[in-house]
Amino acid sequence: MKFSEVIIIGGGPAGSTCAWKLKQSHKDCILLDSKKFPRTKLCAGWITPKVIDQLELSDYPNIQINDNYVNFFGIDKKLKSKSYSIRRYEFDDWLLKRSGVDVYHHKVQKIIKQDGFYIIDDLFKCKYLVGAGGSHCPVYNSLFKKVHPRNKNYEVCCLEEEIKYDYKDKACRCWFYEHNIQGYSWCVSKNDGYLNIGVGALFKGEKVTIKEHWDLLVKKLNSLGIVTNYEFKPKGYVYHIRDRVDHCRLDNAFIIGDAAGLATTDLGEGIGPAVESAMRAAESIVNKSEFNLHSIHKKSDPVAMGIMLFLWRMINFFTLKKTSNIS
Ligand SMILES: Cc1cc2nc3c(=O)[nH]c(=O)nc-3n(C[C@H](O)[C@H](O)[C@H](O)COP(=O)(O)OP(=O)(O)OC[C@H]3O[C@@H](n4cnc5c(N)ncnc54)[C@H](O)[C@@H]3O)c2cc1C
């Protein structure tokens, strides 16, 4: 059985950031992921200037900076601020390699706690276990499900596809509340000729399905001449916006990022909270200190995300008050 003082499960931004920080403190640490990197991760790939700072990304080669256009209740608006975006396919791989952690290609299924250690599939053993496996994190499923139940009202449902496309329109475009969607759809150009197109919302109680929203988006992209005559094959994914965070550590086991359900309640921004929670887990392991996620921002910084303050406030007012009890 392979022993490491710390084992991280999941190599997305949460897992790789935690590994990066632990390695900087010379901690014995390995990471397990069920996928071989580079791997596809559904995500529009917006990152904030804060993420760029925290991850020290000044030498990351592929940050696309676009003009922002939003459409809000049918009104088009060009914003002064810019959007920063990356392709998760290459970003996650770059972060994981930079962390210097040894990565094991392994799909975790069974985790048990025995004599103060965590045993994973009878193959790996550790003192500290970090669950960074996203929405389907096995650490969450094995150890945290009962104490940290997920609320269906906080579930974001998405359909998305990233396509190689000879685009002419370089802008980042978002459409809010179209066809009464409790969320938004987007089209974002990426470096090296990729376009990321998607729709995401809280679909609880909606009359129109996400597939119908997707079809309307494709129709619009066609009519605007942004993407024409393309055979899309979108994929779906579900993740959770921020709810309570009082049970994200049990003994020496932690959940961070999407495993803890930390995406912002207004824009569903999950990369920033994943990075921040990962840094706190690493700090807690290194300094044997408390692990506390309460002060991680619940809402996106509207200017940093390229969305004006008024828009952000309107979203909060209309979407969140209507669909749930999020405070
Ligand atoms: C369509 C869509 C668009 C989004 N757009 C944005 C955006 O523009 N900006 C933003 O900030 N956020 C966005 N988000 C949210 C963001 O993608 C997530 O919050 C972020 O990826 C969370 O990172 P993570 O490291 O916690 O989890 P993930 O990135 O999901 O990584 C989890 C890793 O765990 C691995 N894993 C899972 N199960 C196992 C297992 N059993 N064994 C081993 N490994 C396992 C997976 O293979 C994966 O590599 C979007 C989400 C979606 C679905």
Task: Give a verbal description of the structure.
There is one protein chain. With 327 residues, the chain is of the alpha/beta class. The protein has a single domain (2-152, 238-323), classed as FAD/NAD(P)-binding domain (3-Layer(bba) Sandwich). Helices cover 25% and strands 30% of the residues. The chain has seven helices and 16 strands. The chain has helices at residues 13-24, 49-54, 88-99, 138-144, 210-223, 271-287, 309-323, and strands at 2-9, 29-33, 46-47, 64-72, 75-85, 102-105, 111-114, 117-120, 124-131, 155-164, 172-176, 183-190, 194-202, 235-240, 249-250, 253-255. The model is unreliable at 321-327 (pLDDT under 50). The protein binds flavin-adenine dinucleotide.
Shape: globular
Q: What is the radius of gyration?
A: 20 Å
> According to CATH, what is the class?
Alpha Beta
Identify the CATH architecture: 3-Layer(bba) Sandwich
The total of beta strands comes to 16
State the separation between the terminal residues, measured CA to CA: 45 Å
**H-E order:** EHEEHEEHEEEEHEEEEHEEEHH
Please outline the major beta sheet: 8 strands, mixed
Fraction in beta strands: 25-35%
Low-confidence stretches: 321-327
* Small ligands present: flavin-adenine dinucleotide
Classified in CATH, the superfamily is: FAD/NAD(P)-binding domain
Count of runs of 4 or more consecutive helical residues: 7
Number of domains: 1
Task: Decide which structural class fits the backbone.
Answer: alpha/beta
Helical content band: 25-40%
Mean pLDDT: 90
CATH topology: FAD/NAD(P)-binding domain
